[in-house]
Amino acid sequence: MAAPSSSSAATAASMCARPPLTTLPAAGRVLLLPAAASSLIRARRPPSHDALLLRRPSSDVRCRRRLMTARGERPQEEEDDAEEQHVGFDAAVALFNRGDFHACHDVVEELWYGAEDPARTLLHGILQCAVGFHHLFNQNHRGAMMELGEGICKLRKLRLDDDPFSRFRDEVAAVLQFLYRTQKELAACTDELCLTMDGSPTSYQLLGNFAAGQQLYKMEADADGASSIIFSASASSQSVPLRVKLPALHATEQHLTALQCTYEYM
């Protein structure tokens, strides 16, 4: 079946306005917090002595200190927790790239709390992508598509080009189109009802609920060391399973710092 029309992309774009922050509890269950509840967890920690350096006129110091929390640093009263003190953006990247999306979410969420734009928007987008892939491999296809769509919206808002973050954004967008296409083929008809899968908001919602709880997607390592997402369903007539590249984030804390220091937020 042909890839979805531009209307499907418009559908994904329409999700940009959805404000809730998504969080994953430690037990592996999925919880979507409403906007009102999210304000309770976004309270900033008391500023440390280092945070006060933000007031210095030096632009170099200002750029460094604006990313203090995004580097895994903590206020002085929390420095006794050595394990948390050394968890930063590089650790989040490593977790994402090895498929530990739940743990990646937890790390990025901590960084997101204290970051400022544009890093804040970037981290929020990465967080939602991690949640989306966690959903995908745990049979929550609707949740996966919605979170990936929202994450893409955050990353597109930054209007980045030809850098590790823009390449990650494009790879995630390719996965979202793959999910829409494969589920569209699978959900086109049920035993009781044929659905018109035209990319409209209504059909998108119907699509997302179809095959809930079924293991349709799995990760598979490729010969070149990368990984792919494999679509496989008993109802599918594909002799060769469909696949798409699993996105990888090839960025470091230095890329995040450079973005924070040089990017003029739109």
From TrEMBL:
It holds the Pfam family DUF309. This is DUF309 domain-containing protein. The lineage of its organism: Eukaryota, Viridiplantae, Streptophyta, Embryophyta, Tracheophyta. Gene3D superfamilies: TTHA0068-like (1.10.3450.10). It comes from Eragrostis curvula. InterPro entries: DUF309, TTHA0068_sf. Transmembrane segments: none annotated.
